[in-house]
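Sequence of LysR family transcriptional regulator (Thermoactinomyces daqus).
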Amino acid sequence: MEFRHLKTLKTVVEAGGITRAAEQLGYAQSSVTMQIHALEEELGIPLFDRLGKKLVLTAAGEKLLHYAVRLLNIHDEALAEIRAQTEPAGTLTIGTPESLAAFRLPALLQEYKQRFPKVKLIINPGLCTEMRNLLRRGELDLAFLLEAEHEEEEDLAVETLVFEEMALVAAPDHPLARAEEVKPKDIQNEIILQTEKGCSYRTLFEQYLMRNGINTTQGEEFWSIEAIKNCVQVGLGLAFLPMITVRKELQEGRLSRLNWRDETCGVFTKMAYHKKKWLSPAVKEWIELVRNRAEHWRSN
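Predicted 3D structure, token representation.
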């Protein structure tokens, strides 16, 4: 039993005859007649009594019409639901390190929510190594990473968005703030206020200092960049942080950027998602928005 035949049956009844039904469906009258005959042959029973030019539903026709209406309504509901899924909706779960959550994402989140208010956004902060594992387990739709260049991975699509400049900062009245150049040996006895273990730029900085024979065990560890900045401002130590996280404090004179030649390989903001996971309309729109915003980041 073909679905279009049921639709033709319903239209014939509603239109009051084959001629009007053919006009509404855009079929030739012979085509409408053939579809009704096909239903009757398949069921082995007449669906209409043909009383001259008038068609009257038989008892079997009445029963089939009842089910045809139900099936057609379900069909329309299904189409509406599926088409609704082409519009961004549902939940979008994004993983990100704290620095990007605070200094790259707010403008993105604001624009996205204005454009797609039906999408619920969930932001999961964490380390970049954790983000990769969460993507692989399907617990994140996308993740932002802040790390050095990385080898291509078979299961994850990783897009490099922008290079992140780093800064070694101190309190404005720190002696090193007045130095023409700060070298690794100059911070041998300084306390370094560090982000958590596993943080990409902390790792790069420690590796660089170790290559220059500098002991990095003396320092304090924090989970909050804001806490680090506040402690640096009151003279508790130095910090190596992404420029985007300290730009405001530098402009306001609350921190000083040391004349430090950064010879680490640098870090990049990246966007990652699983290659084999279906990209919902919400995810696709987020990816497109991030790509467009990254062009602005690079130009500045």
